[in-house]
User: Which sequence fits this backbone?
């Protein structure tokens, strides 16, 4: 019933605006999944071959032969295989969490860190470093996850008294709590140089030096979070129609938000604890997929499972080869292309007013008609810039720059691997 209703209403009120606009470019879901799946497999092979000691494809294939103990097999299984699997899991988790977050808030500019989860994990890590002297990732893993979970719980607790107000209070509570936690973190690191030296490497977000033990600890949380997120697809579609419409379809908005928030907490908390705060995946992937596939949350959640690993694997591989000596963290690769493309293109941290003005211009409506774009307004009351394809082009220039840069780097890496350079 919800699925049929959503198909009828996914125009998101365009009829009330007196004109129609496509919500996607008509890319087939099956073909998209196939292409992204093949690309993710190729990137996994490149990830196993590229590093400080590059391997040929023959050496990588030989590492999978049972009973052979060579230098290549040790490198593949002990160093690069856990890193590659963790990149796949974390990439899928962050992308899915981004889809859920944007569907929950009905805002295409939202990303998982807006709930203060990254800030909670960061403060917990800083406290464990400063008070307990922990420096290894496996030592403060549980502190980071506990801080992320506690921050999410506090945000939910602050938003419960006026849950009927929609997602606006949830987001505002997350932003306020995140700012407070970040200020505490900055104060501690300002006066504790030893903690700052250890913290600054973790906060960049890196997949390096992650072993199989850490992978075993975080995979159960990621798996449960992915299941909960995939289950919430229909309820997110119902919430996109507005609170009253969702209730008429038999969906409890409070339960739907609690389920979505639980999945976001598990996915972002475990991912941040394992690799640090890497939030660009949860912001870029849903934007690109929504352009191609439309606003159906079920499709976005399914395709983001393979799109997220592609982006994170690509960033990790580029970080290994972009420097002559050593490597750049995946979060650092993100900051190179994302800050250059998004500095004035609508990310909440880089000018929310400009973002709203661009969305209003894309919708072709005056300022008084874009009040519904603010968080919490039902989609049925919008003149629907949020439902239009053009409304999600806020980050298009940044996305194009990112894709071209990653594609060029991957071509160079692939040629060097194939020809044994």
Assistant:
């Amino acid at each position: 019933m919800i699925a049929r209703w959503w198909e009828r209403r996914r125009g998101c009120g365009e009829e009330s605006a007196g004109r129609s606009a496509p919500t996607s470019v008509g890319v087939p879901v099956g073909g998209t999944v196939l292409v992204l799946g093949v690309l993710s497999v190729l990137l996994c092979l490149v990830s196993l071959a590229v590093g400080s000691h590059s391997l040929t494809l023959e050496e990588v294939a030989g590492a999978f032969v049972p009973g052979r103990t060579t230098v290549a097999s040790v490198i593949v299984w002990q160093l690069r295989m856990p890193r590659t699997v963790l990149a796949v899991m974390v990439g899928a988790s962050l992308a899915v969490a981004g889809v859920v977050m944007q569907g929950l808030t009905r805002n295409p500019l939202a990303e998982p860190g807006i709930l203060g989860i990254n800030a909670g994990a960061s403060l917990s890590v800083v406290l464990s470093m400063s008070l307990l002297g922990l420096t290894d990732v496996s030592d403060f893993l549980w502190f980071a996850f506990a801080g992320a979970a506690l921050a999410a719980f506090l945000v939910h607790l602050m938003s419960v008294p006026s849950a009927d107000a929609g997602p606006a209070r949830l987001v505002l509570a997350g932003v306020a709590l995140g700012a407070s936690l970040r200020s505490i973190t900055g104060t501690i690191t300002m006066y504790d140089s030893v903690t700052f030296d250890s913290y600054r490497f973790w906060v960049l977000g890196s997949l390096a030096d992650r072993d199989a033990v850490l992978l075993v600890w975080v995979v159960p949380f990621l798996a449960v979070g992915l299941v909960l997120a995939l289950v919430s697809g229909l309820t997110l579609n119902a919430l996109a129609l507005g609170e009253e419409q969702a209730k008429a379809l038999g969906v409890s908005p409070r339960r739907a938000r609690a389920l979505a928030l639980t999945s976001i907490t598990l996915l972002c908390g475990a991912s941040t604890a394992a690799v640090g705060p890497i939030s660009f995946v949860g912001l870029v992937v849903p934007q690109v997929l929504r352009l191609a596939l439309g606003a159906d949350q079920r499709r976005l959640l399914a395709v983001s499972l393979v799109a997220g690993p592609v982006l994170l694997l690509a960033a990790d591989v580029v970080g290994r080869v972009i420097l002559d000596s050593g490597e750049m963290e995946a979060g650092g690769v993100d900051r190179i292309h994302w800050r250059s493309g998004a500095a004035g293109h609508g990310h909440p941290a880089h000018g929310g007013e400009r973002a709203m003005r661009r969305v209003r211009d894309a919708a072709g409506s005056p300022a008084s008609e874009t009040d519904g774009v603010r968080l919490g307004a039902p989609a049925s009351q919008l003149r629907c810039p949020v439902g239009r394809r053009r409304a999600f082009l806020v980050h298009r220039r940044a996305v194009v720059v990112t894709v071209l840069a990653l594609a060029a780097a991957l071509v160079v890496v692939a040629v060097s691997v194939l020809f044994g350079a």
Remarks:
- Confidence is low (pLDDT under 50) at residues 9-23, 340-399.
